[in-house]
Amino acid sequence: MKVHVTGACGLLGSHLARRWVELGAIVTGSDNLSGGYRDNLPESIQLAVVDCCDLEAMTIAAEGVEVVYHCAAAAHDGLSVFSPLHVTRSIFVQTVAVATACARNRVRRLITCSSMARYGAIPAPFCEEHTPVPETPYGAAKLAAERQVALIAKLHGFEHVVAVPHSVVGPGQRYDDPFRNVVAIMANRCLQGRPPLVYGDGAQTRCFTHVDDAIAPMVAMADAPVDGEVFNVGPDEEVVSLGELARMVMRAAGLRGEPRFVSARPAEVAHADCSADKARRLLGYRTTKTLRETVDELVGWIQARGPRPFIYNEPIEIVDDRVPRAWVEQKM
Q1: What is the DSSP string of 237-297?
Q2: What is the DSSP letter of 132?
Q3: Residues 6+ apart with CB under 8 A from 321
Q4: CATH number of the domain located at residue range(s) 2-168+211-233 in this protein
């Protein structure tokens, strides 16, 4: 089988690509290198350095492919409040381009990565049958992209599945991006000897998924009889507050003291955890790593690689007094 992975240099994309190689598939990837690390992907995997919005480039990348995983995204939920155009274009337009390339090439199945942000502030735990009510432009763009894929797939006769990964964490994660990946941001700061930032009172609750635990059900999505289905992919056993998470990262990094609490971010959902029952039932999903193991592994990986200054390479389109000061001053 030939598999193509967009966002192949990112955390989820690179782990998926390597797993499919282990399974004997022919694997190709595409990435514009804006959000991942090139060395995440083995040189043996053919990589097209292109933007997924480029329809002609994506059409070439998907030639002869049976299954496409669309992992590429500017996954900036909080930033989308202040940069709605940039984030919406990167999510919605590129997903339409990828789906169109799949239709052109008669790809059998497209597996699209959505986001927990699709659900918004509805009561947790989120279930797939709940009606999504996004709170941010990022969440709205993800939901709109899902619906567009479903329509294009129906019109042009290919299969599609929506994966909704839940705060994926692990080695290979971009940790010098100040706008996303909360565990990686906290770890990078702690390993520089600085306490992690916690927005608001830290009572917001989340679940976090070790990347290896996300890969198995996503591989199963390629062949399981689940055309047209949406799946939450993530643990529902360990719900943690962001304050507790910050202290856990500090302990793993050997940093004493307390996190630094700053003003709350607008439109941040208070409680965001999901039910994984559907993925367990239909895809064999199971959790193999605890949150503490996941945090320890990520901190160790960043420590070995070396902490880095944060890179502010995303635009802020709307500047008002609600923009986090660290973003404006570029002093994460």
Answers
A1: S--EEHHHHHHHHHHHHT--S-PEEEPPPTT--SEE-B--HHHHHHH-----S-HHHHHHH
A2: P
A3: none
A4: 3.40.50.720
Q: Class of 182-206+237-329 per CATH?
A: alpha beta
Please report, as a single letter, which amino acid is at residue 253. Answer: A
Strands (E) across the chain are located at 2-6, 26-30, 46-48, 67-70, 109-113, 159-165, 168-169, 197-199, 205-206, 209-210, 230-233, 240-241, 260-262, 271-272
Measuring CA to CA, which residue among 138, 163, 111 is closest to residue 5?
111
Residues belonging to the chain: 332
Cα–Cα distance, 316 to 329 (Å, whole number)? 12
Structure tokens at 229: 């289905």
**Residue-range domain boundaries for the chain:** 2-168+211-233, 182-206+237-329
pLDDT tens, N- to C-terminus, the chain (332 residues):
999 999 999 999 999 999 999 999 999 999 999 999 999 998 889 999 999 999 999 999 999 999 999 999 999 999 999 999 999 999 999 999 999 999 999 999 999 999 999 999 999 999 999 999 999 999 999 999 999 999 999 999 999 999 999 999 999 999 999 999 999 999 999 999 999 999 999 999 999 999 999 999 999 999 999 999 999 998 889 999 999 999 999 999 999 999 999 999 999 999 999 999 999 999 999 999 999 999 999 999 999 999 999 999 999 999 999 999 999 998 87
Which residue, 96, 98, 8, 104, is CA-closest to 63? 104
Give dist(CA 318, CA 302) in Å, integer: 32
Average pLDDT, the chain: 96
Amino acid at 116: M
How far does Cα 162 stand from its chain's mean position?
Answer: 13
Query: Which amino acid is it at 330?
Result: Q
